[in-house]
Amino acid sequence: MTGLSTRVTMIVDLVGSRRHADRVWVHRAFTDALAAVNRSVPAEQPLEPTVGDEAQARYATVEQALRSSLLLRLELPEQLDARTGIGGRIAFAIIVHIGAIRSDGTVVFGILGECRCGKG
Hints:
Layout lengths: L7 E7 L8 H18 L4 E5 L4 E6 L2 H14 L6 E7 L3 E10 L5 E10 L4
Antiparallel strand pairs: 1-3, 1-4, 2-3, 4-5, 5-6
Helix pairs in contact: 1-2
């Protein structure tokens, strides 16, 4: 994926985090995963929690945001999952869902939704 060098924002939401009995553990695991991603993927504004079980970051490229999204899913403990949304100034939005990680290490993923609006 090249040529997608527009600045993008990524939002993150933990899936079903309020159902966990140990919310302190959930928050710690979430912030640890965010920190691991921040160490691995350069960001204009690193992933940081915003409200509750949500986080946000800004990246220089779509590639960095997609890499960050995948890495976050890999860094989270097995009991947690996250959805990410990626949007940019050329009026696009991508919602990424990693469907499975196969035993050989390959990843099955899909775009849950895409919206191209405006003049982009």
